[in-house]
Amino acid sequence: AFWGVSHSRPTVMSGLMSAHPPAVRCSFSATSTTSQGGSTLHAETVVPSNAGCGLTNGPDGKLYSNTSGGVAVLDASTGAAVSMGGQAGNALGIAYDPATRRLVYPDQACGFTSVGCPIDTYDPASGASTTLLTIPASQATFIDGVAFDPSGRFLLLSTRYPVFALTVVDTQTARIVQQVPIGSEPDGISVHWSSPQFVVTSN
């Protein structure tokens, strides 16, 4: 099954296959296709990867993944690990903050622990790593998908436990401003940036 998906450059869509090692990175060309059984198939390249489930692309052309060892920096063309940095993550969601140019992701402790959910940041340019906030255990002990609104001010989190919810964090104040109940367990999350703006979660 596919987990993280990212559009890493104009002609390639990347995804991570398998949540358990050995993970592989699959990329699909937008321009090279074949036809099979009446369907159009995009040329696929599969390479080994040390990535976690979450995957995002940065403006530097690299891919970034939340892993139990920290943030894995990947070559977008080959899937090869370039470097590691930041605090250990929960191997799920990760997003690029357009305002601060940092990667934001749930900490390793954000997986059914009593401490709540620390949300970490990592600056790939300087190597600096911080904790943005720790969400109390009464509001979140397991977070999956991570996304930003277009301004970069609001961080949107797919909260899977102890409630199914969309958790909204104001990154300027490092406070939760809203927690919207969801009828089923959310997993991935994405934001439609152009008008009309809306948030989509998958389960």
Task: Describe the overall structure.
- The chain is mostly beta strands.
- 0% of the residues lie in helices and 55% in strands.
- It is built from no helices and 18 strands.
- It is globular and about 50 Å long.
What labels would you give this structure?
203 residues; mainly beta; 4-stranded antiparallel β-sheet; 18 strands; 55% strand
Short description:
This protein has 203 residues and is mostly beta strands. The chain is 0% helix and 55% strand. Mean pLDDT is 84; it is low at 7-13 and 16-20.
Number of DSSP strand runs = 18
Count of helical regions: 0
List low-pLDDT spans: 7-13, 16-20
- Please give the share of residues in helix: under 10%
Give the class from helix and strand content and strand pairing: mainly beta
Order of helices and strands: EEEEEEEEEEEEEEEEEE
How would you sum up the global shape? globular
Percent of sequence in beta strands: over 45%
- Mean pLDDT over the residues: 84
- Largest sheet properties: 4 strands, antiparallel
Rg measurement, Å: 17 Å
Topology:
Elements: E1 2-9, E2 12-17, E3 23-36, E4 39-49, E5 56-57, E6 63-67, E7 70-74, E8 81-85, E9 95-96, E10 103-106, E11 117-122, E12 129-135, E13 142-148, E14 154-161, E15 165-170, E16 175-181, E17 189-192, E18 198-201
